[in-house]
Amino acid sequence: MKKLIIAGANGFLGRHLTRYFHSSGWEVVGLARRKQGLDENCRLVLWDGKTVGDWASELNGATALINLAGRSINCRHNKKNKHQIVESRVVSTTVLGQALALCPNPPEVWLNASTASVYADAETSPQGEGMKLGEGFFVDVAKAWEGAMMNAKVSEDVRRIALRTSLVMANEEGTVYDYLLKLSKLFLGGPVGGGKQMVSWVHVEDYCRTVEWLIEHNDIRGVINVTAPDPLTNADMMKRFQKLAKRLFGLPATGWMARIGAFVLQTEPQLILKSNWVVPRRLLQNGFVFRHPEMNPSEW
């Protein structure tokens, strides 16, 4: 039986990956600090995300490892929260590298979460792998996160893949999809900050399929953009959710209104206002086929 190790398995993506791989006959092991949030088909192995312990034995003979551990960025980026965001990603990645270096029979592939926000703010051209990186906190986080994996003293036989992932969409409570739909139902689903900023996204099914595809294709390593091939503007995205909510209009929000709203909601305005125009160049070049290439929330 193939075995997938998921570090940080009790989050949204961890649960979806568990269901997807379990349905294909895989054993799924979750490294987590607590059982809460785990899918029922995931076997819990406790870890602290900071030190090598008994959990490391699970890596021996496993097929693949994916690391999703990290504090949510959906918060105010004050000094304390910034430190926790960086530390939770870098330290967990570093300790996985240490455990893999000691493993006599390590997994064939190590996939590590990263963010599509690492690229420069773009409204005129799409950003593929190898394009210019941006500046700011998100970029600094991504560089440190990816560096912790790529610089780990792990055997070259272990393929390392950084998953630069965009917004992941799923029709379920508590997701971006759910949030946008609720806003639209309240007639608040208009364009934000002018609506020209690009939004890169990927359907959760295609996210899971991408992970599976990357595990199977042993010639691929390095940076991979995990985004749908059809990014769209913020204004276009909101129109689609207005249609789903059966609303004829949505009140727009200017940049300053978005900043006030973000402050009230205790989140960061850049999450809404930055133009992320990122495309899955390497996936497409190597033959990956998306089941959800266009954003059609009414069909999900």
Outline the structure in words:
The protein has 300 residues and is α/β, with parallel strands linked by helices. It has a domain at 3-168 and 203-227 and 278-292: NAD(P)-binding Rossmann-like Domain (Rossmann fold). Helix content is 35%, strand content 16%. The chain is built from nine helices and eleven strands. The chain has helices at residues 12-23, 79-102, 137-150, 176-185, 204-216, 234-245, 255-264, 270-273, 281-285, and strands at 3-7, 27-32, 43-46, 64-67, 109-115, 159-165, 167-169, 198-199, 201-203, 222-226, 232-233. It has a seven-stranded parallel beta sheet with strand order 3-2-1-4-5-6-10, with helices on both faces. Helix 3 links the parallel strand 5 and strand 6. It starts with a strand and ends in a 15-residue tail after the last helix. The mean pLDDT is 90.
Give me a quick take on this structure.
The protein has 300 residues and is α/β, with parallel strands linked by helices. It has 9 helices and 11 strands.
- State the shape: globular
> Which fold name corresponds to the CATH topology of the domain at 3-168 and 203-227 and 278-292?
Rossmann fold
Radius of gyration: 19 Å
* Content of β-strand: 15-25%
- Which percent range fits the helix content? 25-40%
- SS element count, helices: 9
The count of strands amounts to: 11
Text of the CATH class of the domain at 3-168 and 203-227 and 278-292: Alpha Beta
| Sheet with the most strands, sense and barrel status | 7 strands, parallel
Low-pLDDT stretches are none
What string gives the helices and strands in order?
EHEEEHEHEEHEEHEEHHHH
Distance between the termini: 31 Å
CATH homologous superfamily title of the domain at 3-168 and 203-227 and 278-292: NAD(P)-binding Rossmann-like Domain
Would you identify the CATH architecture of the domain at 3-168 and 203-227 and 278-292? Answer: 3-Layer(aba) Sandwich
Name the strands of the widest sheet in spatial order.
3-2-1-4-5-6-10
- Please, what is the average pLDDT? 90
- Helix/sheet category: alpha/beta
